[in-house]
Design goal:
alpha/beta; about 45% helix; two-stranded antiparallel ribbon
């Protein structure tokens, strides 16, 4: 094995070198690796202000979240599949992307070298190994790295990626399962060397997945406990409500549809109105009626406490990943 010299994380460029460049639609023409590379920058369909999305997009890791992100970006026309590249250890998931016209590889360094924006979508336990295997980049190329790795802080990410490029531009991001149908929650926080235009790009890209907001990093772990694990809590509630309907005589398919629509409609009442969930709950409960009696059963069985404790447990585990407990 040929040993290569890594960049030293301590080498930093002055922050004054970070200049805000005007956003324009540019076409980079030419050929690279024998493939014609019309690197057209795409205007966002999401933001009212004109925002330019990255010409080339890369994914390290092609699991469920990566596939959901990429499928939506392609569907919304935010990126060109021929200017998108993804890597994974095996072809199991890559073959699905190749069918959409996306270039694939088993070499993570190839992804970084050929992308303006790189999504890092790997498990926390393999992140260090994945980054350490990346080849250092030329000074002229500094992609925006977007990590969707659970629980790993910006400080850790910047330290790791500092061996690949000086002053790495890093965004820590989280999204959830409903992003696959454009109804997700996408939150992000920016690192030391990012610029406001990087935030614009994140709003443009992630806004196609549902709700998108930039938040402080100290809120990220709690948000992850609520947003990333939350869909599993709701799916379990839908399944349980459907089971209750089946127990009382409803056909399974109908019970599941009714349970899911009830959750969807209730969420819309909260999101589209200005009433507190407690007030909406009170409006459904008639004195001495069936709903308040059923709610008494939920309270007796610690329904609220169970949900609160589940969010707390998920958040605590997320914090432990990067040693923040």
């Amino acid at each position: 094995m040929v040993k290569r010299e890594k960049r030293k994380p301590g080498v930093k460029k002055a922050l004054t070198n970070l200049k805000e460049e005007p956003v324009t639609v540019t076409a980079f023409l030419g050929t690279k690796d024998g493939v014609e590379n019309k690197r057209t920058l795409f205007r966002s369909k999401i933001c009212h202000d004109e925002v330019v999305n990255p010409a080339s997009l890369g994914f390290i890791g092609c699991g469920t979240i990566a596939q959901a992100l990429l499928s939506t970006f392609l569907k919304e026309g935010l990126v060109d599949p021929h200017l998108t590249i993804a890597s994974a250890p095996t072809d199991r998931n890559l073959c699905k992307l190749r069918a959409q016209g996306v270039r694939t590889t088993h070499d993570n360094s190839e992804v970084v070298k050929n992308s303006d924006l790189v999504f890092i979508c790997v498990k926390p336990q393999v992140l260090t190994e994945v980054v350490e295997d990346l080849m250092p980049l030329e000074d002229v190329h500094s992609p925006l790295f977007v990590s969707v790795v659970t629980g790993v802080s910006l400080v850790t990410l910047e330290e790791l990626l500092g061996t690949v490029v000086d002053c790495p531009r890093v965004v820590r991001c989280m999204t959830n399962n409903p992003s696959a149908v454009g109804q997700g929650c996408c939150l992000f926080t920016r690192g030391t060397y990012t610029s406001p235009s990087d935030a614009d790009v994140m709003h443009s890209m992630l806004g196609s997945l549902g709700l998108c907001a930039e938040i402080s990093e100290h809120h990220m772990d709690a948000a992850s406990g609520l947003v990333c694990s939350g869909p599993a809590f709701i799916y379990t509630a839908i399944e349980a409500m459907a089971d209750g309907g089946v127990k009382m005589g409803l056909p399974r398919h109908l019970a599941q549809q009714l349970a899911a629509q009830t959750v969807k409609g209730s969420a819309a009442m909260v999101l589209e109105g200005d009433k507190h969930p407690g007030q909406l709950k009170d409006e459904v409960c008639s004195p001495g009626g069936t709903t308040i009696t059923a709610l008494h059963t939920l309270e007796r069985l610690s329904f609220r406490n169970t949900i609160i404790s589940a969010v707390e447990t998920s958040t605590t585990l997320t914090m432990s990943i990067d040693g923040k407990e």
